[in-house]
Amino acid sequence: MDSSNHWYGHAHILSAYCGFDPAKPPRIAGVLQHGWNVLHGFGPGHEPPLGFVKFVWSDVARRRGHAIGWRDFSVIGSPWAYLLQQETEQPTKREGTIFYPFHTWEQGSVEGDHKELIAAIRATETGPVTICLYWIEYDMADVRGAYEDAGFRVICHGQRGTLWQGTNTRFLHGQLAELRKHERVASNRLSTALFYGASVGCEVGIYGPAMDFVEDRGGFDAKDYVQRLFPDLHKPFVDRDLMTALTREELGLDNILSPAELTFELGWSTR
C-alpha cells in the first residue's frame, strides 16, 4: 500500500465504511487522492506509478488528469464523503469562525506575515475565532504564540503521518467535530478545509495575505491561477449556493459508492 493512503486516516475511514476493521485497513490496490488541489488531485513528487489505479474524489480530478495524458483513474468520492455517511450527528449550537492559515508541509516551507493575517482576521470576524494550525506551525512557539497572544483559541488536528508512523487515524473525525461547532470556516487560500467546512453547513471566507511557498513547486502552488479560476470565491463572505455546488463537485459527494461497490473498486473483494 502506498503510505499516503493512510494519511489523515483515509484508509481507516474507507475500511470502516466497507465493514472491515478500521484499525487495520486492507491494502488499497492503487493510490488514493489525499487532498484537494486545482490540478489532478495528486501533489508534487507524488505521481502514481504507471499502471497503478488513481483513486480520485471527483470526475473533475479525472478530467484534469486526462488533460495531461494520465489514465487509470477510478472516481470513488472523497474519504470525507464516506465519513459524513458514518458520522451523522448534527450540532445543537454553532458559534464563531475556525480559520486555517495556509501552511507548510514536511518537505517545504512557506513565507508570509502572520501578524498581517491576524490583523485581517480581527478586522473581519465578529465572533470568537479558533485558529487551526498544521502540526509543523503548531510546534513553532513563535507562530502559535502570535495567534494565542491575539486572543484566539489555537488548536491542531494532529499529524497526517509519515510512512505509516505517527498517523492520527482520527484526524478527520476531530476536524469534522470542530467544523460542526462553528458558523464559519475561513482561510487565506482556497483549500481542502474550506470544502470540508462548506459540506457541513459552514459559511466560507477567503481573505488575508495568501503567503507563498519558498521552494519551487513545479506549478503546484497555482495561487494566482486559482484566484483567476475562482474569482467569486476570494472574498470574506462567499456566496453559499456557489460554494455548496462547487463543494459537491470537488469532494465527489455525488460519487459515493455502496460498501460492496467500494470494496470491489479498492481490491478488497477477495478478503
Features:
271 residues; alpha/beta; Rossmann fold; 3-stranded parallel beta sheet; 10 strands; 34% helix
Brief account:
With 271 residues, this protein is an alpha/beta fold. The protein has 11 helices and 10 strands.
Protein architecture, described:
With 271 residues, the protein is α/β, with parallel strands linked by helices. Helix content is 34%, strand content 11%. It has helices spanning 10-17, 59-67, 79-86, 114-124, 135-138, 141-149, 171-179, 192-199, 223-229, 240-250, 259-265, and strands at 31-32, 54-56, 73-75, 97-100, 110-111, 129-132, 153-155, 184-187, 203-206, 212-213. The strands form three sheets. A five-stranded parallel sheet has the order 7-6-4-8-9, sandwiched between helices. A three-stranded parallel sheet has the order 1-2-3, with helices on one face. The chain is globular.
Give the beta-strand count: 10
Please state roughly what percent of the residues sit in beta strands, choosing from under 5%, 5-15%, 15-25%, 25-35%, 35-45% or over 45%. Answer: 5-15%
- Name the poorly predicted regions: none
Supply the CATH architecture of the largest domain. Answer: 3-Layer(aba) Sandwich
Secondary-structure blueprint:
Elements: H1 10-17, E1 31-32, E2 54-56, H2 59-67, E3 73-75, H3 79-86, E4 97-100, E5 110-111, H4 114-124, E6 129-132, H5 135-138, H6 141-149, E7 153-155, H7 171-179, E8 184-187, H8 192-199, E9 203-206, E10 212-213, H9 223-229, H10 240-250, H11 259-265
Parallel strand pairs: 1-2, 2-3, 4-6, 4-8, 6-7, 8-9
Antiparallel strand pairs: 5-10
Helix pairs in contact: 1-3, 8-10
